[in-house]
Amino acid sequence: MPYVNIKVTGDEEAPTKEQKQKLIEGVTKLIGDVLGKNTSNLVVVIEEIPMDNYGIGGLTVRERRKSKK
Amino acid sequence: MPYVNIKVTGDEEAPTKEQKQKLIEGVTKLIGDVLGKNTSNLVVVIEEIPMDNYGIGGLTVRERRKSKK
Amino acid sequence: MPYVNIKVTGDEEAPTKEQKQKLIEGVTKLIGDVLGKNTSNLVVVIEEIPMDNYGIGGLTVRERRKSKK
Amino acid sequence: MPYVNIKVTGDEEAPTKEQKQKLIEGVTKLIGDVLGKNTSNLVVVIEEIPMDNYGIGGLTVRERRKSKK
Amino acid sequence: MPYVNIKVTGDEEAPTKEQKQKLIEGVTKLIGDVLGKNTSNLVVVIEEIPMDNYGIGGLTVRERRKSKK
Amino acid sequence: MPYVNIKVTGDEEAPTKEQKQKLIEGVTKLIGDVLGKNTSNLVVVIEEIPMDNYGIGGLTVRERRKSKK
């Protein structure tokens, strides 16, 4: 029974409830299809990381967004 | 010095302060007893995941709880 | 740019190279579709955990498989 | 259904099969007792980290062990 | 493209925005220098763990701080 | 006492012992300097992920390297 952890940016970029349900559904189906495993107890955890706490290429996502404006 | 990470559902299912202290104490003692390691600096992190972000078998915990009512 | 971590059992239950490519492809596409994010740098890590190191319901997967024979 | 991840040093400090089973059993029981949750599908993953890859206080565990001889 | 996750205590011990930017910058530069990798898409995630959820040596950080007063 | 986890590609791209020691030393010093914390027990874990298990933008690192030849 695999375990999946998805980290995404939160704050104003946070996924909606519907998007989270779709991600959980989609990942669970994908793993069932590809690995042929019983997924009835497969755990998917989505963690929303604040934009000041998520760095890409040395800059926080918050700073990156500002520099793109 | 091992490191332990425990993910549980948060929101109304979040563990109480006392429960968290018991988990930290219990896991630390267990690892000391089983592995015979010095646990004076053993780190245990408990992460509370919102019920909309915790999926089991393709459904969010929030949806699972509703469907059981 | 989300980050995805998938933990599965290894040893004789380890996914094949093709299955790993399918999981990486599928998860990346899913996140792009659902969140509408640029996924050109999305990281997916698959970790294969030995069956003696993966516990479900208090038993290692190794033990669970034996008890099902 | 909580998820637990335990990182310990591997190589010659790796836990034995019996110790891993005891850790899985013990953590599962502890969480059941403390949180009163159904643990029949609780996942515990033990990851063995090579001593050259595990740093404490700025030194790898390998180096720390040498300096204690 | 490495992925880095830093867990620190939150609440009144949470790092400031400037400290988080410095950590992200510093870790990204360090990995670029040491591993010679292109770090333009290197992901660094900083997770702030509440002091009641962070255990060291069997006690929550909250309790440890109290006992030091 | 923060906890740091670094995931890098393994196999022929794995960091050397010296590089791992430098990463551990560097990250520990950085956190001490930026957060002013006692780092004598700070844990840094480096995980080497096989190139078939590390996906970027929908392709395994193995495939990406081939397509760049």
From TrEMBL, chains A, B, C, D, E, F:
Any idea of its EC number?
Answer: 5.3.2.-
Q: Which UniProt keywords apply?
A: Isomerase
Membrane-spanning ranges: none
From which source organism is this entry? Parasutterella muris
NCBIfam families in the cross-refs: taut (TIGR00013)
Q: Which residues form the 4-oxalocrotonate tautomerase-like domain?
A: 2-63
The protein in question is named Tautomerase
Q: State the family it belongs to.
A: Belongs to the 4-oxalocrotonate tautomerase family.
